[in-house]
Write a structure and sequence with these properties.
single chain, 307 residues, alpha+beta, 13-stranded antiparallel β-sheet, 9 helices, 13 strands
Length: 307
C-alpha cells in the first residue's frame, strides 16, 4: 500500500497544554506499507516535517529534549526550528512494546535558527559552573545556539543519538564554544560527550595557559536530564591530560604529573608577561578547577567503597 499526502495540516495537542504541541501546514509526503522478513513496516519517505516553527518551552520538553538536550526544561526560549526526517520505519505486526521500540528506526536532522535560552537547564548549569571556575569570571546567564546549527539525530535501541549541537555563552565570549554529542534515552538517562573550547582572549600572552587551552577540553555528562553528573571521559584521566599540556615542550619525553603541571603553571603565571592579563583570576580559576576535579574523583571513590 502507498499513500500520498499533499498539502496537509497536522495539529497535535496534549491534555496538559491547550496550545498545539505540533502545528504543521502544507505537509506533503509519501507513506508506504512494506513487507519485510521480520514483518510489515510503516515507512515514510524523506520529508521536511517542520519548517521554521516557533520554538516554545513545551516543544523543548515534549520531544526536542531528546535531540537537543541542552534545551530541555527551558523556562524561556526564543527562536525557530526545522525538522527534516530522512528515515522513518515503524513495525506494524510487533505487539511487544520493547521489541517494537527496538525495531523502530528514525533518523534526520533538526536545524536551530537564532535560538536563545536561559540557564535553568541542569546540564547547562553544570557546564556554566565549570566555565566560571576555569575562567575565574562570573557565571553566564544566557545561552545562544550557533545560527542555523544542524543537529543530526538517530533513534535506535530506545534512545536518541545526536551530534552537532554547538552553543556559546555570549556574555563571556562568542568564541567560547561548547559542543555536545551522545545519547538520551526515552527514560531520560544520558551519556553525553562535552567539548569545551576556550577562546584565545582568555589566555592572552601567558604561554602556559595558552598550552592548557590549545585543544578542547573533553568531559562526560551522565545521570539524567534532571540530575546530570559531570565526569571524566571513561578510561581517561583528565588531570594527566591537563598536566601533559602544561609541561614545557622541551620536556615532552618526561611523564606528565599533576605536581609538575601545577609547578609549571605557577612559574608561568608569575613570569612577567607582556600586556596586563588578569593573572590572579586565571591562575585561581585553573587551580580551583584542578582541585574541584580532584575532590569529585575522591568523592566518587568514597561512594564506591564497600560499607
Amino acid at each position: 500500500m502507498t499513500a500520498e499526502i499533499k498539502q496537509a495540516e497536522v495539529i497535535v495537542r496534549t491534555p496538559q497544554s491547550p496550545e498545539p504541541l505540533i502545528h504543521v501546514d502544507n505537509l506533503t509526503t509519501t507513506l508506504r506499507l512494506e513487507s519485510t522478513p521480520s514483518g510489515r513496516q510503516f515507512v515514510a519517505e524523506p520529508t521536511l516535517l517542520m519548517d521554521r516553527v516557533t520554538l516554545t518551552p513545551e516543544a523543548c520538553q515534549q520531544g526536542l529534549q531528546f535531540v537537543a538536550p541542552l534545551l530541555a526544561d527551558s523556562a524561556t526560549v526564543a527562536g525557530e526550528f526545522s525538522l527534516d526526517v530522512s528515515e522513518f520505519r515503524l513495525p506494524v505486526d510487533e505487539s511487544d512494546p520493547e521489541a517494537r521500540a527496538k525495531a523502530t528506526s528514525i533518523a534526520g536532522r533538526v536545524t536551530l535558527h537564532r535560538v536563545e535560552t536561559g540557564l535553568r537547564n541542569p546540564l547547562l548549569a553544570q557546564i556554566a559552573d565549570l566555565v566560571a571556575r576555569l575562567t575565574g569570571g562570573q557565571r553566564a546567564q544566557l545561552v545562544q545556539v550557533f545560527e542555523d546549527t544542524v543537529v543530526d539525530f538517530e533513534y535506535r535501541d530506545g534512545g536518541v543519538y545526536h551530534d552537532g549541537l554547538a552553543i556559546v555563552l555570549p556574555e563571556l565570549s562568542n568564541d567560547l564554544v561548547i559542543r555536545t554529542s551522545g545519547r538520551v534515552g526515552l527514560d531520560e538517562q544520558i551519556d553525553l560527550t562535552v567539548l569545551l573550547s576556550l577562546p584565545p582572549d582568555l589566555t592572552r600572552s601567558i604561554p602556559v595557559v595558552r598550552r592548557l587551552t590549545s585543544a578542547p577540553l573533553e568531559f562526560r555528562l551522565t545521570g539524567t536530564l534532571d540530575d546530570p553528573q559531570l565526569n571524566f571521559p571513561e578510561g581517561r584521566n583528565l588531570l594527566d591530560e591537563l598536566a601533559g599540556r602544561l609541561l614545557d615542550p622541551a620536556d615532552g619525553s618526561q611523564p606528565a604529573t599533576v605536581e609538575g603541571a601545577i609547578g609549571n603553571l605557577i612559574n608561568g603565571l608569575t613570569a612577567e608577561p607582556k600586556g596586563k592579563p588578569d593573572v590572579e583570576k586565571t591562575a585561581s580559576g585553573i587551580l580551583n578547577l584542578i582541585q574541584t576535579l580532584r575532590d569529585g574523583k575522591r568523592k566518587k571513590k568514597s561512594q564506591d567503597a564497600p560499607k
